[in-house]
Every structure is written in structure tokens, then in C-alpha cells.
Amino acid sequence: MDQNAVSTKPSIPCVDQRPDGPGVSHIDRSDPAAAYYRLLARMRSPLTLRDIMIRPVRTGYISNDLRLEDLPPSASELYPEVSVSSIYVPSPSGPIRCQVFRPPGSDDLPMMLYAHGGGFTVGGSEDTAYITSRVAWENRIVVVSVTYRLAPEWPFPAGLEDCCAVLDWMRLHGQEIGGDPSWIAVGGDSAGGNLAAALPLKARDENIASPDAAVLLCPITDFHVEQHESFERLAPLGIIYDTAFVGYIRGAYAVQYKNWSHPHVSPALADLRGYPPTLVVSGTADPIVDDNYAFVRKLRESGNEHVEHFVRERMPHGYYFFPGLLKEGDEAFAAMSRFLHDRTRDLRR
Predict the structure, then answer these.
(1) Percentage of the chain surpassing pLDDT 70?
(2) How buried is residue 39: exposed, middle or buried, by Cβ count under 10 Å (0-12/13-18/19+)?
(3) CATH level 3 topology of 72-344
(4) Dist CA 290 CA 73 (whole Å)
(5) Residue 278 CB: number of other CB atoms within 10 A?
(6) Are 75 and 133 in contact (CB under 8 A)?
(7) pLDDT for 234-247, tens place per residue?
(8) Domain locations in the chain as residue ranges
(9) Which of 56, 59, 190, 244 sits in a 20 to 30 Å window from 171, CA-based?
(10) pLDDT digits (tens, 9 = 90+) for 187-207
């Protein structure tokens, strides 16, 4: 079997199902403090604080008490003609589970790699099915949504490496899912927006053909969040997320202070010359709106002539996330469609 071929039935567990990561703590019996650690292990469950903290994050992110009648219509109800299939893309770390959202029609469609949000620690491709279905339907584009490895079990660069492996596979094998490998955008929301923003830089460093466009929805582009007035003013009492949550995910994903300035963690600090055409979607009630302004400004200063910043007043982080809830969310999708149409006009002729 071709090692680069896509498989719908993986022979080994896909990476997002692996129970632990490379940084798992253990008690070394030869350690002079082993007795102390063993006592803590009997007192605590689980042993490490990062594992204690991730439990409420993951169980509370979407409540178990949620009633179906409280939810807006599902993506399958809204976009029944968009086919959804699961694939497993090979990588050096094991198969990567992805969902493919494909509109009806001919093959050789433009493609987008999409990275879901969730603070690098929560979620999967199913969580953003509304976004990816709508993008696929409204723009006649094949969307490959990546369920990348999550922190703290798999900190930086694991999730980004998964996305890079999927991008490479799409360039080589995208026609197998009805796509045109010659044109691939990257997209993502929140933490996924960070991964999408870093992916052109990672691809450049890995000698992989860079994405042809980037659609970044409320991305965090610089982990030095406290430098921005909007974060200091809005994050302490934030509803969608707050200062405490950002501190936790920064420690879970970036782990070490030195990584905050790594261009693949904070793409705003990278050399952005040659960066692809970019759309950034923001809201002024989002603590990272100043981060987004700064990233857009640096892209323009780096000579990028195709940078658009769509901003809506008093809109919070993720205001585009639920169908039919806010008119500003529909306006954000319209901005995405205009941007993608302009980028793919020549391709569709």
C-alpha cells in the first residue's frame, strides 16, 4: 500500500485517541524524593496539577446538562447537500483523523484545511461542523477539518505538526477527495486560528508549498497577550474566556517561556514577508482584538497587498459560531465568501 495514501480504516489508533503524550510525568524509584511523590500520588487524583486542571476544562467546556432544544439547528440540517466523511491522513506520529466537508458538484474544487478552536486543549472537528459546512456550501470548496493532538498531553509543536502533515497530504493527494491540490487555503478559529496563522510559516520552514490564502477567525497571534490594552481591559472578567484560562492554555500548549516568542507559536513575531493573502475576522469585545489589529498591521508593513480585516463593534470572541443568532455572524461569513471568491476567481475560469 502507498504510504501516502489515505485510509478510511486505520490499522493503529489515530493520534487524537492516544491516551498520553511525550511529556507524561512518572515517578522514578531512584529519585531521592520518590517517597514524597508516592505520598502525593495517594493524596491526589490525578497526580499532576495540569491533569487536575484539564478535567474541569474539558467537562465544563460543553455541559453534560445541555438540552438539545436549547441548541440551534445542526450543520446536517442546515446544509444537507454537503457530504461529510472521515479520513485518516498518515503522519510520522500516526494517522490523523480528519473530516471532509464537500459540496455537491464537480471535482477539482479549491480546498481549505481547517483547524478547530478550543484553547489547544479541547475539541475536535465535529465542534466546528457548522463553520466548515457553511464555508464548503457557500464557496464550493472542499474543507478538510483536522482533529489535531491536544495539549497538555501533546504540547507544541504536536498540533501544528499534525496540521502540516495534512497540508502536505492535501498537496499530494487532494484529488482523491475531489479537490484541486494547486489551491489550498488554511482557516481556523481561536486557537485553530493560531495554528492556521502559523501554518504558512511552518510550511515555509519544512519546504512544503505554502497555503494560497489564510482565513483567521479571532486568532491569537502573539502569546505575549498582556502587552495589549484590550486584553488587560477585557480579559479579567471575560465571559467567553478570561485571563485565567489564557494563562492555563499558554502553559499547557507553549509550556516554556522561551516558546512564547517562537514564530510558530506567536506568528506575529515572525518574518511575514511572502505571507499569503489573509482575512482576519475580529470583534471589538474580544480581549485579543488589539492582537489582531497588530497582526494585520505587521502583514501590511511586510508588503502584503491582500490583507483584509473584518471587525464588528461590540462583538465577542467567536460571534460567528452559531447559526441565526447574530446578524454580525452572517456578515462575517459574507466577508469570508467575498475574500475566497476574489482569491479563486482565476482558478474557476
Answers:
(1) 92
(2) exposed
(3) Rossmann fold (3.40.50)
(4) 33
(5) 26
(6) yes
(7) 999 999 999 999 99
(8) 30-62, 72-344
(9) 190
(10) 999 999 999 999 999 999 999
